[in-house]
Design a protein that fits this description.
Blueprint (H helix, E strand, L loop, with lengths): L1 H28 L3 E4 L14 E7 L11 H13 L3 E7 H9 L5 E8 L13 E3 L4 E9 L16 E5 L14 E5 L2 H9 L5 E4 L1 H10 L7 E2 L6 E10 L2 H20 L1 H9 L3 H7 L1
Amino acid sequence: MSLKILFICKRLIRRRTIQSIAFALVGLLSTPFCSFAQGPGAKSEGDLGRIEVLGKQIPVYLDDLEASVFSKLISRIHEEGGLDLVLSILPAQRASKLFSSGKGDILVPYPLNQQELTPGRELDGDFLASNPLATIDRHVLTLPGRDAITSPEDLKGLRVGVTLGYIYGNLEEIDDIRLISATNQVSLVKMLYSERVDAVVSFPFETKVIAKKLELAPLPWFDPDYVISRSNIVMLFRDTNRGKILQGSVNDTLAILQKSGYLDRISQTFEVEREAEQTFN
């Protein structure tokens, strides 16, 4: 009798062990972040430990843990700088709110207007910015068939779509302009094609990619010479001792990537295609 009980117990232990392993594998496969863990020979950078990176989910910029532009950049920063980076991609507003509330070590990507001296001023707290990861321009886009916007005068009396959380220079000073806000870039593109607005202010490359993904046509056009604002895309850190160390480590690594030409290739990714400019002209 005792041998039979022992046999049953062993079977139960095996089953529980197998179940535990299965649950552990499911947990690993469903993890919502990508970890660029340090290898045996990686630098410790002052024992910073695990560094949590909150990624704002934005088409083209950061919408895939491995294939998007800035996830690849974060991987390169890990490789060159030996930082134990853990990337989580979240809806843009949620990522910003979490960072503002004290969660995470780094927020990316963050557009910093070149005239802006205080990074993250719309967030609660004091923040530091990295050196630029890329520089991109915002233009006024319209659908083909409408008059092109080539100056502030052309915006008078129009309904113009903008995205919440961005700075748009002196748009509000234009007479009779009506600014209509969208919560994100996808909503902004949908507003344009549904003709709720006459034009939108956005990054042309990103707008075109979103339109293609939504199977919307024809693609919007713009005047490449009329730039609403120019932004440096940066990483944000907290203005703390840890944040300052991180900022220094990341900037040192960015200097290496700049010298190798890697950062220039990122900027080229967001440059307007010549084909689009030729279509406009």
